[in-house]
Amino acid sequence: MVANIRSGSSPGGALYYNKEKVDRDEAEILYWQKMLEPFDKHGRMDVDACMESFRPYLEANRRTANTVFHVSLNPSPEDKLTDEQLREIANEYMQKMGYGNQPYIVFKHTDIDREHLHIVSLRIDENGRKLSHDYEARRSMDILRSLEQKYGLHPSVKGQELTDRESLRKVNYPEGNVKQQVSSVVRSCLRNYKCSSYGEFRTLLERFNVSIEERTGTIDGRSYAGIVYGAMTDDGYGIGTPFKSSKIGKDVGYRALQKYYEKSKCQLKEEGALDRLRQCVRDAMRPHNTRDEFRRLLKADNIDAIFRINPVGRIYGATFIDHNMGIVANGSLLGKEFSANAFNELYPAPKGMRQVAERRSEQRQEQRRHTANPISGIVDTILDLADTQAYEEQQRRIQRRKKRKLHR
Q: What span, in angstroms and rounded, lies between the C-alpha atoms of 380 and 15?
């Protein structure tokens, strides 16, 4: 059995994540302790009732930043357990971890091949005291070993760790429930990946057909900042009507994202945090490769390489997504040797693209010197560019921007 422990500033995010699973019949509530009944009059999970149960504890301690204890317990796929056994395991685990007298709620997830549990609780007691979390990971492992022996479970295998990243999938607009799909992707990305900037987070979300846009400005002398999410098609076009982050929850809003970026920055600055990603990228940077071969080599390590390319084929940006480590990093974050300029020198634009760029420059100079029809020159240039891969890439980008503008 494997446990993945997470912290958070508010239980709302963890509760909404599990509610989405329950609403899609991918999870069910197995048990709750010292809490109000977590269902509304229609039998649906009621997040407000759960928050009401947690509120006295949260109000008793306003100093602690990370108040949430959210753990997933993952038995081996070979372990076939009844609901009653799962309840017993969850309760015994919480008791031994020091959360036996806390309010908590247990969910059974069935969205992937192996059933697993999610438990949401608080790290502060009813008197406002923060519960000790010294050597938390080590204590958790010891408890799991004892539970495996007691219940005859298969021992965990290194590398078998399970997170909800395994069930993270692209938004499929025709399936409906778009807002629910988008919110599920956004929250799962926030839990499982580290992004130190808006640009990196946007690049990550676009891999799962989710668009994000920051909107800032001033109205009547007051500054405002907000986030708008939306769905995208597989080829990068916006689809449907985008919606404000407030339609999902504060945990995915502008302020929450700023805190998330800062936290990610600190985590990625820790010694060794980027070592694996740097080494994998360095190993794939072979001088005789093409851009596509470079991407394929990294894909074998479960790393996506995304180049941003201008109309004449020049690389002006590079982002890497390490799905194994949950890291999204621009090349500049990894170091100078991984900058856009470095990749552009290593993988320059094909000769045909450069010739088109030179021809385009000459045509513009010719237009300045003579009074010939400028429209004709522009049309000729566009026709030349139409034969290049770079131009096609630029056109797709332009169309995506137009689509987004239409939905505003």
A: 58
